[in-house]
Amino acid sequence: MLLIISGLTTRAQETQKMYLSGTGSDHTVNWQFFCTEGRNSGKWTTIPVPSNWEFQGFGKYNYGLAKDSLRGKEKGLYKYEFTVPAAWQGKAINIVFDGSMTDTEVKLNGKSAGPIHQGSFYRFKYEVGNLLNYGRSNLLEVTVSKHSANASVNAAERKGDFWIFGGIFRPVFFEVSPQTHINYYAIDAKANGNLKAALKLSSVKNGSITGQVYSLNGQKVGPAFSVKVNSGDTLVNIGTHIVSPKLWTPEFPNLYNVVFTLNQNGKAVHTVKQRFGFRTVELREHDGIYVNNVKIKFKGVNRHSFWPTTGRALNKEISVGDVKMLKDMNMNAVRMSHYPPDDHFLDACDSLGLFVLDELTGWHQHYDTQVGSKLVKELIEKDINHPSIVVWDNGNEGGFNFDLDHWFDELDIQKRPLIHPWGIFRGTNTQHYINYDYGTGTAMHGHDIFFPTEFLHGLYDGGAGAGLDDFWDQMWHTPLSAGGFIWDFADEAVVRSDKNGALDTDLDHGPDGIVGPYHEKEGSYYTIKEVWSPVYLEPREITPAFNGKLRLENRYFYTNLKQCSFSYKLAKFDGPYQKAGIAPKTGVIASPDVAPGQYGNLQLQLPVDWNSFDVLYVTAYDVTKHELYTWSFPVSSHDKITSRVISKTGGGKPVIEETDSLYKVKTSNGIELEINRNSGILTKVKNAKGKIPFNNGPILIEGQDQAGFQKLTQHYEGNNLVIEAQFPSKKTEPMLKWVIYPSGWVQLDVRYWPIGEEAALLGVNFSFSEKDIKGVTYLGDGPYRVWKNRMKGTSLGVWNKTYNNTITGQGTVVYPEFKGYYSNLYWMRLETTGQPITIMCNNQDVFMRLFTPANPAKTYNVAPAFPSGDISFMHGITPIGTKSQKPEYLGASGQKNKYFNYDKNIEDALPLTLYFDFSGK
């Protein structure tokens, strides 16, 4: 079935497009197919086009870094029969391939359409008007070799650190124009309103080209303009000036259409239309990259064209969804890694607003000059008119052919900057994976524009958001920094049709994403969303004296905050046993008049009872009413929330029994505790319903053997039983005290110091049988776990998490992950196969630790240390690194926990007060 758009029913002078394939992975057309090697080879069958044949059950899956036993042998033979209208005879007709992997030979009706095309990611075409049977049947035959006969093509794109596939993975179609026609047009529309265009012509006689700019709703913008054309002209330049055009930026992606019409003998012969935007890009050496005279910090990510069930074959819905996710993370830029993308992705960047770095493939090695020159021309010819593209990339990480640089300069009418990603080139330093504290005269301390096209290499749950807060603070305040691009957007995991649908990342090569293979949001997603919010709210404590004023910074480049909108919500939290029963109160916050780069205040008009609530949420929205971020500010203290949950009275006096090694305690409601008299450690918990497997704590995470425990004593304070340890002066642990109340609640007070001035981990451990855990409900920051260098992106609330033992980025992953560290604990309720356990925390800045996450197969720097035990309450946790860097190289928050207390005053020791309800209610 053929699909015709701008079809045969439209005016003859418009270019017609007739699809031979489908338009994308969501709309395909079956062609005949024969695979020469691997699965299902050696027989004719059918295959959907566009597609990669591995996902259809053919050939062999290959990751680029792996050796391929079928290299040079695996080919796909395609056949497709079709008819074209007899009315096409005499017209100029091109057959167009938007992408085919990789060497592609095309025949029509048994005759060659032209030279074999080499290079996977580029649009190529052949003029085939003289090969077609008009009004009759035609046969298209295509032979696609997965690997190229050209060694440099294989080196540049088949041996990269990404999956390689075979097949016609982008659409195939005819372009049909009159013999006299405009065959190419390149537009340069500057921010000052000057518009010029270069048009290539075929078979023209004396006449003219006229142009007219339109708004997207069809209204004329400015007067028509024209240029004379002489017989035989193959290139004309035309231009106009538009007064005060609306400019294109990621924040305001204003677009226009321009229509060019070729006129001969007073008659319109051919008309073309192009969408574009007015904007000016400049690279000012030793200064920065400017768009519309504004210096830009690029908040970007690297993106592969990829989907787990279809490989590189995509569709418009996926492209639009990807751009929306990037925008939702408050990104303003994306780098095409490591090849040009589908048209529909660039269209989405144009219309929704993202800066784009468009890239010629070259992963550590480059195309030779002959093939590379052809591919540069194809890249620029297809993508030149997209206003989103602001920088060209010649290769990646050493895959630069310097002999190709001049083509970008000569072929781009807009003269966009050219970079060599990972290189120092033309005033830009784009080195990858630099450390936070780099050497004098380099990176952010250098003299070139610092613009890392890859940094914070994600792997499993490491990198990406981890370390970003430190890096971005430095980048934001360093004038020569132009921002950077995180590696990378999504885990590149394929659904293996040869392995029962298993997700395969080729071990540690593919799980680098901020999102999972199906774009499941990982913890770093929300960290990035907060760190890169263009509205920056300064941290502050909400005290009873709060006057409703929050200081902010406008980190937009083109938007005044008066164009945004803001709201607040006051809420009361549920407790571990009951609902709060109080409806939240919401309100609108007046948008302040704060220009880009300036500071101002949000003035909240809160109700008089605002401090009777537990939390204040403040939300910022962009000009389209899309949420930028929601911040949470605690209103109620830990003590306030604790005091309304626990009850210390209401039962008989606890009874204690001493043995040689134990204190055995019974309460009137049936709770039984055993505490070791030689350590103060809880060894056993039981109630009337049975044993509770929570014990073996508190044990200091570091330095328990030096705690200096002397003895344990017990006494009553009224009806409260107090069991207290004694320590020598200025030892690691100056306090360990249990208080058992008549109500059955048990209080634990611990104070301690780290050994020395720094520690990897700070806190106390308890044991709990992991096989008995079903989940946890808690009040604290969530729902995602945190690392020491990835604290942002959470929200204060009551979160309900079901147990899972997932490994981020490995296999089928459950999000959010269960195991790990969670910040700012108020209370937690362990849901078990037996009885629940409720624990209240009466201190700020305490982390809840839930078990130890399993490590991936290769850990690199992304398997931080965890304490022994199972459940921990901590003042200091570990940071996480990236694939290539240890966490201590990623900034201050990647260092060990520092704590100074030279005098060892007990008042300055780290405090921990916990309350336990072992009643099982």
TrEMBL record:
Alphabetical UniProt keywords: Calcium, Glycosidase, Hydrolase
Residue ranges occupied by any Glycoside hydrolase family 2 catalytic domain in the UniProt entry: 282-405
Catalyzed reaction equations: Hydrolysis of terminal non-reducing beta-D-galactose residues in beta-D-galactosides
Start and end residues of each Beta galactosidase small chain/ domain: 639-832
Cofactor(s) this protein cannot do without: Ca(2+)
Listed InterPro entries: B-gal_small/dom_5, Bact_Beta-galactosidase, Beta-gal/glucu_dom_sf, Gal_mutarotase_sf_dom, Galactose-bd-like_sf, GH, GH-type_carb-bd, Glyco_hydro_2
Ranges where the Glycoside hydrolase family 2 immunoglobulin-like beta-sandwich domain occurs: 181-279
EC number: 3.2.1.23
Family statement: Belongs to the glycosyl hydrolase 2 family.
Binding partners and assembly: Monomer.
Name the record gives this protein: beta-galactosidase
Organism: Mucilaginibacter pocheonensis
